[in-house]
Amino acid sequence: MGCQEEPLVQQVRELFEQISSLKSLKPSKDVNMLFTQLVLTCMPPNPIDVTKLCKRVQEMRSKLIRLCGEAEGLLESHFSTILGSYENPLDHLHIFPYYSNYLKLSLLEFTILTQQYCTQYHVPNKVAFVGSGPLPLTSIVLASNHLTTTTFHNYDIDPLANSMAVRLVSSDPDLSKRMFFHTNDIMNVTTALKDYEVVFLAALVGMDKEEKVRVIDHLAKYMAPGALLMLRSAHGARAFLYPVVDPCDLRGFEVLSVFHPTDEVINSVVIARKYPMPTHSLEQQSLGPMILPNCKCSEIQAFNPFNHGNMIEDFSIEERQLS
């Protein structure tokens, strides 16, 4: 596929050039307008395969993802500061402009997790969220609405981000006892990873393929056997906004499901189980053969959080891989 004859690529490049020329990526009228245009350009389902674009576009995409990551971090810091000024910050989360997206994404992730792990009598006791940032909305929403007895250990490399996050939950009598924040590079966390039944990996931990794979390999080495890894990816044109994780990147894991929302929830969700699966977890449900090329994935073509029927289409991992 050539670079010039793809209208979507031209639109993305024009927006990239405008974003690159900004003096600052802190929230402002111009910043908000350009990133909104970028998201709306990349949101509609599109069969484009970013891995097959020319080198020049690949380089532009890598730079754009980093710009998106920087802008997202500044946006979260901005609103975390505002929220932290309230007596009860969690009562005002709706002021964050993408709060409804986090509600939908968290419900999607909980629904996927329920299919593979949770039952009425079995929910994870301890989970980790890697890359929680200054506004840890996924952890907050999951802990408040879905995993109401689970302890959340949030990891971020930035001490300021963690101090801002702590301020948000410190006044809540429940979450302040169940949410912990660790300032650490996850690559330096080893034995503690064995304590978690589920590990969430934020989309912007590992901003390119090599970084992402290094983090995944580290988790594969130190997570408990049978523990679940839930991570965020991107599909189609949305891969201009976030890094893509392919099933073949998950060495040491059995990929269970891949979900590609087609609504305003931008991130795809991948769930995988670390090899080898302990015998006792087989009683939860049969998950098929343990050889990666033969296991099954599930793809949600359009996720409706209020309709859990008729939304899964099975396909094999080898059909999805782009080689």
TrEMBL record:
EC number(s) recorded for this UniProt protein: 2.5.1.43
Q: Which Gene3D superfamilies match?
A: Vaccinia Virus protein VP39 (3.40.50.150)
InterPro entries assigned to the protein according to its UniProt record, in alphabetical order: Nicotian_synth, SAM-dependent_MTases_sf
Which PROSITE patterns does UniProt cross-reference here? NAS
Reply yes or no: does the keyword Transmembrane helix apply. Answer: no
Catalytic activities: 3 S-adenosyl-L-methionine = nicotianamine + 3 S-methyl-5'-thioadenosine + 3 H(+)
Q: Which domain of life is it from?
A: Eukaryota
Tell me if Oxidoreductase is a UniProt keyword of this record.
no
Q: Which Pfam families does the UniProt record give?
A: NAS
First-level EC class: transferase
**Function of the protein:** Synthesizes nicotianamine, a polyamine which serves as a sensor for the physiological iron status within the plant, and/or might be involved in the transport of iron.
Please report which protein family the annotation says this sequence is part of: Belongs to the nicotianamine synthase (NAS)-like family.
Q: What is this protein called?
A: Nicotianamine synthase
